[in-house]
Amino acid sequence: MDVPAALQPYVRTAWLPETAEEDGPRTASKLGGTAWIPADETWPACPNCGRSLQLLLQLNPDDLPEAVRGEVGEGLVQLFYCTSQDPLCEVDCEAFFPFSASVVARRVVPDGEGSEAVPDLADPFPPRRVVGWRPVDDLPVPEDAPELSLPDEVWDEVYRHGLVERDKLAGWPTWIQGPERPACPRCGTEMRVVFQIVSDDTLPILFGDMGTGHLTRCPEHADVLTFGWACT
Ligand SMILES: [Zn+2]
Ligand SMILES: [Zn+2]
């Protein structure tokens, strides 16, 4: 879309993952696949069903565009999610809300080879290793630019053509039910979105009815991360 002058200062770069159908090293940036696990740990499991969690995302700052490395911090960012349908852990554990028991969002600093743990999943997602990042211009939803007064037609156009409703690093979050930035449980600071995962983009996952999820991080505490999603 032609971005109106008033919106131009709000244009941010979002980075779309370009992926190959392979797992790659345990420390690689990837969606799905095998994560680096500390030597003294087992693969993360769900407290509700006891099964392995599915790795949704691992980000290694070495693989990221330089402009956003600081947002991710040192070490690997990992997001694991219970995909069990019976029991339906997503609902039992309210995985749409931040800090759900059936979701693990964490930072680990790789140290040596790590564990040989692999997930025990009947139907794991095919691994997709991130091999590049494609920059695109991204725009906010109106709730993220409350100081801007633009006609409804402009926002309609932003909704139609300006939002990047894809899996993406940085940029503006595409909120479905308005902004959801949790407060850090340690310091109360509003957490910042690191990565957006939409239903059925890179991963064959559906968050409710084609929902969109966000991995957030405390700007003060690199090891405080969480995930939540919303659908229409
Ligand atoms: Zn579960
Ligand atoms: Zn904090």
TrEMBL record:
It comes from Rubrivirga marina. InterPro entries: DUF1963, YwqG-like_sf. Pfam families: DUF1963 (PF09234). SUPFAM superfamilies: Hypothetical protein YwqG (SSF103032). This is DUF1963 domain-containing protein.
